[in-house]
Amino acid sequence: MPSHASITLQDVFAARARIAGRVRQTPLVASPTLSARVGHPVSLKLECLQVTGSFKIRGATNALLSLTEGERRRGVVGVSAGNHGRGLALAAHRLGVRCIVCMSRLVPQNKIDGIKAHGADVRIVGDSQDEAEGAVDALVADGMTMVPPFDHPAVIAGQGTIGIEVLDDAPDVATVVVPLSGGGLIAGVALAMKAANPSIRVIGVSMERGPAMAESVKAGRPIAVKEMPTLADSLGGGIGLSNRYTFAMTQALVDDIVLVSEKEIAQAIRHAYWQEQVVVEGSGSVGIAALLAGKIGTDGHTIGLVSGRNIDMALHKRLIDGEDVEVSAPSAS
Ligand SMILES: *Cc1c(COP(=O)(O)O)cnc(C)c1O
């Protein structure tokens, strides 16, 4: 039995009921410019307008609400200076659950401040993500619960609630295009889509620079890839060599994975701003990038999931002004 059989459509519906009123039901908007480009109706699911600026609050909220009373009293811990850290911090703060986010000394101050602003304790530990993970193990040994960013049933079910919203707003959906990193988002969305109608196509999009899930699917097992600087910084990092859920679910449920270049990502951020009038981060824009580049074959209503907006606004300004920005330092996610 495939391991994802332990996560069902019922879990996604239960997540939706649990997190209702605590996260935004984000708008699905038609994109005339992308529709003209692709030759079929294209709509954008604007998770960039979600609380905390990305969909991660959905999975984090569902995971916290799924804990026992005792677990909630002892608090939660996460390792992420990026969108998962923000989502977990705010979800915990709102539920009165203690939250510690561990990160390395290399994380820039604005990201630390962002997490603190959402009410979490930030613990700076060591010089690498690995050392940060060592600190988490100690906190877990003391009774706190670790909430991982993607490879967890409650997180996957929480992200899957996006799929139910898409089905409600666009019953004629034929193809869904989903930014892909660790695969929690696409696993949840694909579960909801395929349960409703197995002929709905689910396409993952990652960046050319370090696409861990694409390489793992090609290899037939989770493998590590070299992390490289990219405009899609929220898509960086591996899928975990002992991945339990998202790898198998991606293998079983995702129809194709396409990769986009840094130039295509920059172009998508510009398109989102000038044509759709939305601010998106690189990772949030990769679906638009793939559609603009003609990399998604589609016939029928196509949904581009725009997953987040947390971009450095000075970088955003340079990009929309047309500058060819080459990101050099790996940004901590
Ligand atoms: C985390 C994240 C993703 C990827 O989600 P996974 O569940 O890791 O595949 C995509 N876009 C944004 C903005 C994110 O924060």
Describe this structure as you would to a colleague:
The chain has 333 residues and is an alpha/beta fold. It has helices spanning 9-19, 32-38, 56-65, 69-74, 83-95, 109-117, 129-141, 153-169, 184-196, 212-219, 246-253, 262-274, 282-292, 313-320, and strands at 28-30, 42-46, 76-79, 99-103, 121-124, 145-146, 175-179, 201-207, 256-260, 302-306. Helix 1 crosses helix 8 and helix 8 packs across helix 9 (184-196). The protein has 14 helices and ten strands. It is globular and about 55 Å long. The strands form two sheets. A six-stranded mixed sheet has the order 1-2-10-7-8-9, with helices on both faces. The relative contact order is 0.17. The chain is 44% helix and 14% strand. The structure holds pyridoxal-5'-phosphate. The site of pyridoxal-5'-phosphate has 19 residues, from helix 9 and helix 13. Pyridoxal-5'-phosphate (PLP) binds next to helix 9 and helix 13.
Number of strands: 10
Cross-sheet strand order for the largest sheet: 1-2-10-7-8-9
Q: Look at the helices and sheets and give the structural class.
A: alpha/beta
How many H/I helices?
Answer: 14
